[in-house]
Amino acid sequence: MSSTAAPAESTRSNLIAAGFALFGEAGYAATSIRKLAARADTNVASIAYHFGGKAGLRRACAEAAAERIAEAVGLPRTHGAITPEAATAALEKALRGLVGLLLVGEGAQGFVGFMVRELNESPEIVELMFQRFLGPKHRELCALWGAATGQPADSEAVRLSVFAMIGQALYFRIGQPVVLRGMGWETLGPDEAGRIADHLVAQLHAALERSRI
Q1: What is the pLDDT of residues 24-63, one digit of tens each?
Q2: Is the CB of residue 16 less than 8 Å from the CB of residue 105?
Q3: Could you tell me which Gene3D superfamilies the record lists for this protein (predicted)?
Q4: Which of 42, 54, 65, 128 would you label with 136, given CA atoms 20 to 30 Å apart?
Q5: How far apart (Å, rounded) are the C-alpha atoms in residues 39 and 101?
Q6: pLDDT digit string (tens) for 2-25?
Q7: Does a structural domain hold residue 26?
Q8: 169 found inside a domain
Q9: What is the dihedral of CA 110, 115, 120, 123, to 10 degrees?
Q10: Which residues contact 30 (CB under 8 A, 6 or more apart)?
């Protein structure tokens, strides 16, 4: 990497981190280009240079969020003929990866805040993320659930079960202050995240067992 490429890439990463934080905290409309640049410790022109403007930065944040989730839970793929045991193991691996990302992943608070706000406020971002990653990944997880239980992968029950699995993990991030208070924990670090993951995996196995045909 050249000496000029490294600072440019760093600026781009800093702007995406600023977008995660500010779009998540205040929303897209209330976040100015000037505030984004100040948060990223760069000049206003950098946003236009790297992303073409504020809207481009917003899309880049959505794409970066999808990439971050993919790194944790794997890119969507087909599994072909797979045993119930292998399908169960794949679901467990994806769930543990998601818990790790949401609870102790680098910059998780800003990234999750951005996701929650944008998925509720921006149809464009919903469509982008659903087409690029969330939709295909959900279909893959449904296929695994179907393989693990014998249920049709496209059935309403399976689709709801997969959303419920994801939602349980997400709650421990967005409801973290309540979790800390209720559990008497001072922080939610790797040890606590590991115990949460173990509990959610046990819940997963119980749900699969109940769903088996």
Answers
A1: 999 999 999 999 999 999 999 999 999 999 999 999 999 9
A2: no
A3: Homeodomain-like, Tetracycline Repressor, domain 2
A4: 54
A5: 23
A6: 444 567 788 999 999 999 999 999
A7: no
A8: yes
A9: 130
A10: none
